[in-house]
């Protein structure tokens, strides 16, 4: 089996060499003199290309099978993962301090605030409409009424004091 692979690789190597050094220049010269056609030159070029692709594939496959390649990749992956963990820890420490200095809320704080708003919405809406409110249900009402309520909410938000502006 190994002898067949070596023989095939040597045949491919000779085919690439022969195509690049003899067949392709001769076919190009014949085509330029009008003795041969474009089809002949193209066939010679494709034959050399196929042989070079087979040769490269075999070389890459043999390279991947070497124990040295496996050992080098294992070491480099281990080191890359360690660097990734270190970078994640440093970025977390840096950005936590940055968020606190700037005064921006973190993702956890934002999610907690959303949960509180949903709970308040549920408490206020449920007794008024006597219908249970779920997050996936659509609001019942006409389109103009929904627009009016949205604009009222927007106006209330604009009147509210922004804590980051008040601190400045």
Structure report:
- This protein has 168 residues and is mostly helical.
- It folds into 3 domains: 64 residues; 30 residues; 56 residues, no CATH class.
- 84% of the residues lie in helices and 0% in strands.
- It contains 6 helices and no strands.
- Helix 1 packs antiparallel against helix 2.
- The C terminus is likely disordered.
List keywords for this structure.
168 residues; mainly alpha; 6 helices; disordered C terminus
How large is the share of residues in beta strands? Answer: under 5%
Q: Assign a percent range to the helix content.
A: over 70%
End-to-end separation = 79 Å
Mean pLDDT: 78
Secondary-structure element order, N to C = HHHHHH
Question: What's this, in brief?
Answer:
With 168 residues, the chain is mainly α.
Question: How would the blueprint of this fold be written?
Answer:
Blueprint (H helix, E strand, L loop, with lengths): L1 H32 L4 H28 L1 H36 L4 H23 L13 H17 L3 H5 L1
Helix pairs in contact: 1-2
């Amino acid at each position: 089996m190994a002898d067949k692979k070596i023989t095939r690789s040597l045949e491919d190597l000779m085919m690439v060499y022969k195509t690049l050094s003899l067949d392709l220049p001769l076919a190009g010269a014949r085509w330029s003199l009008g003795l041969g056609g474009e089809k002949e030159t193209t066939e010679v070029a494709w034959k050399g290309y196929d042989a070079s692709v087979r040769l490269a594939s075999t070389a890459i496959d043999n390279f991947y099978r070497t124990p040295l390649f496996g050992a080098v990749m294992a070491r480099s992956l281990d080191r890359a993962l360690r660097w990734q963990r270190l970078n994640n820890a440093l970025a977390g420490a840096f950005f936590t301090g940055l968020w606190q200095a700037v005064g921006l809320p973190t993702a956890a704080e934002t999610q907690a605030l959303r949960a509180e708003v949903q709970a308040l919405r549920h408490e206020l809406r449920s007794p008024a409409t006597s219908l249970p409110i779920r997050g996936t249900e659509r609001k019942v009402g006409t389109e103009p009424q929904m627009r009016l309520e949205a604009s009222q909410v927007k106006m209330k938000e604009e009147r509210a004091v922004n804590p980051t502006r008040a601190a400045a």
